[in-house]
Write a structure and sequence with these properties.
Shape: extended
Structural class: mainly alpha
Order of helices and strands: HHHH
Number of strands: 0
Radius of gyration: 23 Å
Distance between the termini: 55 Å
Helix content: 55-70%
Number of helices: 4
Largest sheet: none
């Protein structure tokens, strides 16, 4: 086995707790997840995920306005009962089977 070293760094306490809970639900602890991150970084010779700026930045005000507009549009849609929703799902599944 290769020589082991200790790696330490600072992180936001709440972020660390949230991330730890995610990895626990996946059946691993935080050190295992970080070892996997480092192994994958070695394999791809870089970050193991895409890291680039978005094409277009959205301001908080624009996002809030878009959210409120979507809520306004959704308010105009009539409510469906659970039976209507299930019937629609059944129809779509039937169409898929026929295709």
């Amino acid at each position: 086995m290769a020589e082991q070293i200790l790696i330490q760094f600072r992180a936001d306490k709440a972020l660390k707790q949230e991330v730890s809970e995610i990895y626990e639900r996946l059946g691993m602890d935080l050190p295992t997840a970080f070892r996997m991150f480092m192994a994958r970084s070695k394999m791809v010779k870089g970050l193991p995920f895409e890291a680039r700026l978005p094409e277009q930045m959205v301001t908080r005000a624009e996002a809030k306005n878009a959210f409120h507009e979507l809520r306004r549009q959704a308010a105009d849609i009539p409510e469906m009962s659970l039976d209507e929703i299930n019937a629609e799902i059944t129809d779509v599944r039937s169409e898929r089977k026929r295709s």
